[in-house]
Specification:
By secondary structure, the protein is mainly alpha-helical. It is built from five helices and no strands.
């Protein structure tokens, strides 16, 4: 899926660490299933209005919701192959928020 990598890298701000190839594949295989499909009701990729209230909750709360699942989102967003660092990177990619400059906090 070279087009996914090109699209994704074009969307990532310079303040955000670049995802590695594995994370791009995880993004394509998991996140895009819902966050690029308007009929799912999930916040949509690239729609800042969909994400602002979520971003305002902060990275740690978002990570907790991703791990545990929230509303229609399943635990881990169906990404059983994701580790904590992957999930954090995918959060930055999906929400469009800049990577935190704060310490990573407690591990899962």
């Amino acid at each position: 899926m070279p087009w996914v990598a090109a699209l994704l890298l074009g969307m990532v701000s310079s303040a955000t660490a670049q995802p590695n190839q594995r994370q791009i594949q995880l993004f394509a295989n998991n996140c895009l299933q819902c966050h690029a499909a308007p009929h799912t009701g999930a916040p949509q990729l690239g729609n800042q209005e969909d994400w602002q209230d979520i971003i305002d909750q902060g990275e740690e709360t978002i990570l907790k919701h991703v791990v545990e699942g929230i509303r229609g989102m399943p635990p881990l967003g169906y990404c059983s192959a994701c580790d904590e660092q992957d999930l954090r990177q995918l959060i930055y990619l999906v929400t469009g928020m800049p990577e935190s400059t704060q310490p990573m906090g407690e591990s899962l």
